[in-house]
Amino acid sequence: MSVYEKLTALRITLPPIATPAALYVPYAITGNLLFLSGHIAKQDGKPWVGQFGLNMTTDRGKEAARSVAIDLIGTMHAAIGDLNRISRIVKLMVLVNSAPTFTEHHLVANGASELFGEVFGEPGKHVRSAFGVAQIPLGSCVEIELVAELR
Amino acid sequence: MSVYEKLTALRITLPPIATPAALYVPYAITGNLLFLSGHIAKQDGKPWVGQFGLNMTTDRGKEAARSVAIDLIGTMHAAIGDLNRISRIVKLMVLVNSAPTFTEHHLVANGASELFGEVFGEPGKHVRSAFGVAQIPLGSCVEIELVAELR
Amino acid sequence: MSVYEKLTALRITLPPIATPAALYVPYAITGNLLFLSGHIAKQDGKPWVGQFGLNMTTDRGKEAARSVAIDLIGTMHAAIGDLNRISRIVKLMVLVNSAPTFTEHHLVANGASELFGEVFGEPGKHVRSAFGVAQIPLGSCVEIELVAELR
């Protein structure tokens, strides 16, 4: 199955590319590396506000991380026109909006990691850092940055 | 206008390369990528101390981020001798020293992003992650890490 | 001295590759760059729990960062089979689990930076960002991500 067939099988519709909230660009290509800006979790087009350990559960966080992964795939599609050009998801940085007591960032991040595995298969396996930050722009609960390799 | 003419037009004098506060180097080149260490905001040569949501305003933060961008440009000049060798500012990571209530990291980060746009023009457009951290070395209010592409 | 002779001289035994706590891989190679996932500090195989400014000292943190560096070297050995293939440690991102009052992240991070200098010599010199995060998966006190260049 191609990446697009997998997206269809998962009933995922790619969103249009997200407009950065500020003065930067959503993606940059250098050599065969595609760098994506940090994408914040959104719900109905607005920041998905919440802080883990305070007013968000790990399960909801997994959903939020999965939704960011879909937005990242949408941005990659807009950037390169054909997702099959992605030879490897190289790296995620997963920022989890955390009260100092929350320690399940890795489980939240799995919401994104699982989706990349489902959609891209073996080339979807990536290195990752996940950790708790004090806050995220606009109060969003999760922010994810990505590096991919192009063929 | 060359990059240096733009710096002059903006009345920006590049500082000498910052001495790392610890056991690392200010820059590393691999292939045609230039990686810069996280640079902390300074005022009069000392850490620009402050925490957003507590004792720093967003406007002051923009100034602090702009000053870090100038320091980063100074380090790039020292690293490669000629800023016109930079074909692209690829990526910024902007760390904002935040109380858990502050949510305008993207506006603080714009202080740096705007300057890169002014100085480098189109090649100054970059991807970016900005987020709130619990603290920054020596209590500085902003820390920025950069990746650039060399021609 | 080769890298392995230096490890022996320092009486360092490389651990087996760490099993990721979640759905990602410990390393990824793209071109001649080796990316490692964030590795958390462990003690006796369990997360080395602690928060600086609350219940961890800077000196203990240096030890924790050094132990993460050893784990990272173990992962690099497992990834490429021969550590002498590393032409350069390019970059560290050092996350320090911090109460909002702690400001010595750079000193904690030195525990890792020093070890890379001792083991790899000149090619061990790297760029670095070190900062305080709100929490780290499983409550670990330090997490470090690494990029290296291969020959």
Q: Which helices and strands appear, and what pairs or packs with what?
A:
The structure is a homotrimer of 151-residue chains.
Chain A (H helix, E strand, L loop, with lengths): L2 H7 L17 E4 L2 E8 L1 E2 L2 E2 L10 H23 L5 E12 L7 H16 L6 E7 L8 E9 L1
Parallel strand pairs in A: 5-6
Antiparallel strand pairs in A: 1-2, 2-7, 3-4, 5-7
Helix pairs in contact in A: 2-3
Outline the structure in words.
The structure is a homotrimer of 151-residue chains. Chain A has 151 residues and is α+β, with helices and mostly antiparallel strands. In chain A, 30% of the residues lie in helices and 29% in strands. Chain A has 3 helices and 7 strands; from the N terminus they run αββββαβαββ. In chain A, strand 1 and strand 2 form a beta hairpin. In chain A, the strands form 2 sheets. In chain A, strands 1-2-7-5-6 form a 5-stranded mixed beta sheet, with helices on one face. In chain A, strands 3-4 form a two-stranded antiparallel sheet. Chain A has a single domain (3-10, 24-150), classed as 60s Ribosomal Protein L30, Chain: A (2-Layer Sandwich), CATH 3.30.1330. Chain A has helices at residues 3-9, 58-80, 105-120, and strands at residues 27-30, 33-40, 42-43, 46-47, 86-97, 127-133, 142-150. Chain A starts with a helix and ends with a strand. Chains in contact: A-B, A-C, B-C. At the A-B interface, strand 1 and strand 2 of A face strand 5, helix 3 and strand 6 of B.
Give a brief rundown of this model.
Chain A contains 3 helices and 7 strands. Chain A has 151 residues and is of the alpha+beta class.
